[in-house]
Amino acid sequence: MFCQENKKIFLSNLNYLKAICIIYHIENYNIYWKKCLYYKYIKDGMMENNNFFENYSKKKKFPEIYKQSKFWVISIFAIFVLLFLILFLRELKNTTNPEELKASIKIVSQNSKWVNKKVSPYGVTIVPSITIKIKNVGKKPLKNVRYSGVFLYKEGGGQLGDGITPMYTTPLDPGETSEEILIKSFHGYKASSKKAFITNKNKWKEIKVKVFAEKSSVLVKIGEYPIKQEIDGIEDILKSESEEEGTEKTKITNQLRNSIQVIWNKTKWIYKKATHKEIIIVPVISIKVKNLGKNPIHNISFKGDFEIENTGESFGHGNTIALKNSLIHNDISNIIHIRAEYGYSIPSIQDLEQNKSNIKKIKVKLYAKSKNSENILLGIYPIKQIVKQDED
Fold first, then answer.
1. By residue range, what is the domain housing residue 138?
2. One domain, residues 40 and 162
3. Model's pTM, two decimal places?
4. Distance between CA atoms of 314 and 267, rounded to whole angstroms?
C-alpha cells in the first residue's frame, strides 16, 4: 500500500529512535519507537503522496450530497423532463398525416342493406348499414384506426343518422386486406313489420353513406356509396309468409271445392247492343249454386272463360261481383248470370235469323272463387244456339 521510498525512510530511522528511548529511560521502547516511527511515516509519507487522503476525502463527501434536498429536487425534475421528452417524441412519431392516411386505405369491397335495430310485437326498427373490406396500400401498418359513416338522404342531403366502429388496434400490414367492417346508423325507419316496408316501398326514401377513417384525431373520407333498398332477412320472412298463406289458401280452396255445387244452369245468346244499324249478341250462362258444406261461404264470385268448342280458341271472358249474402249450409243462391264481353255483330234481326246456323259453337268453363281461395272449376257447359233479347 505504501510507496517504496517511504519504506526506506522508515528503515533508516529505526536505530535513531531506539537510541532516544534508551537515553530517556523509556520502558517498553520497542513499542514506543514503533509507534513514533509509524506516526512519522504516516505523516511524512502520506503528505508526499496525497492519493490516499484525496480518495478518502471523496468517499467522505459523496454521502453528504444525498442528504441535501436540492440534489433530490434537481434529480426528480430531470426525470420528469426526460419522461416528457420520451412521450413527446413517441407522439411525434405516431402523428398521422391526412394525405398519407387516405393514400394508405383502399376499399376493395362493399355491400349495403338495412338491418334490424329493434324488433318487438309492436313494430320493427331498421337502420341503413354498409359492410366494407379495406386493403392497406401504404408503406406502414394501419393501427388504432376507427371507421364511421354519415347516412344522408339522396335527395336534399339531409342527415338520417351516423354510425361508428370500435377502434381497430390490431395492425393491418401493408398489402393485407381486412375482415368485414360493419358500419350501421344509430337511426332509421320504424314500421309494423318488415313486410310493411316492402308494401310501402314508394314511400321509402333513398339513402347514401359517406365513409370516413379516423386515426389520432385525423379524419379523412375514403368513399361514398348508395344504400340498397334491401332488408336483411326479408326473403326468409316473405317465403315463410308465402308458405303459410299458400297452405291456408290451399285449405280454403279445398273446402270451397267440396262445398259448392251447380244445381241448375241455362245457356243462350243475348242482345248486348241493338240499334237500327247493328245487333251485338254475346253468350251467357245462368246458374244457381248450393252450399253442401257445413261452414258458410263468404264473398263468393264467379268467372266464365268462353271458348270456340272445336278449336279451344278464346272467345272472351265474363265475371261477376262477389255475392253480397253468404251461403250457409244447404242454402241455394239466386240466379247468377255470367256473360262474355265480346260476341258477334249482325246487321239486323233478319240477318240473325237467316245466319243462325253459321254462329260458331261456344262452350264456357265456369269457375268459382272466395276471397281467400284460388279459382275452382265448377264445370264446362255448351252455349245453346238460342238468341234472346235479355237475360231471363
1. 98-232
2. no
3. 0.44
4. 17
